[in-house]
Amino acid sequence: MAIDMLSDFAMKSLPENASLKRSVSSNAAGADQAAAVRSETDEVSLTASAQTLARATDKAKAADGMNHEKIERLRQAVADGSYQVNYESIASKIVDAEDELSSIFG
């Protein structure tokens, strides 16, 4: 075990390895400079569809997610007694939701 440590130390101290270390570090510095030059000339342009999607996303984030007109119509219909409950539609949607949950969670 001590022999391995000595041979590793001896290999690292050889002059040819020292010059190799210098060339590796100078290559790394050159790569950093090249990256800096490249980053100054990069450009990004969005397509029209990407811009539309960005606007739609911003609009959706700003909205509260509720249709206030529909809520008011339903509130009025309940208040004046004209709201009709469609029991079959509600039951069908409950069954569909249960089927979907059953397929997900098995």
From TrEMBL:
It comes from Candidatus Avisuccinivibrio stercorigallinarum. This is Negative regulator of flagellin synthesis. The lineage of its organism: Bacteria, Pseudomonadati, Pseudomonadota, Gammaproteobacteria, Aeromonadales. SUPFAM superfamilies: Anti-sigma factor FlgM (SSF101498). Keywords: Bacterial flagellum biogenesis, Cell projection, Cilium, Flagellum, Repressor, Transcription, Transcription regulation. NCBIfam families: FlgM_jcvi. Responsible for the coupling of flagellin expression to flagellar assembly by preventing expression of the flagellin genes when a component of the middle class of proteins is defective. It negatively regulates flagellar genes by inhibiting the activity of FliA by directly binding to FliA. Residues 42-96 form the Anti-sigma-28 factor FlgM C-terminal domain. The keyword Ion transport does not apply. Belongs to the FlgM family.
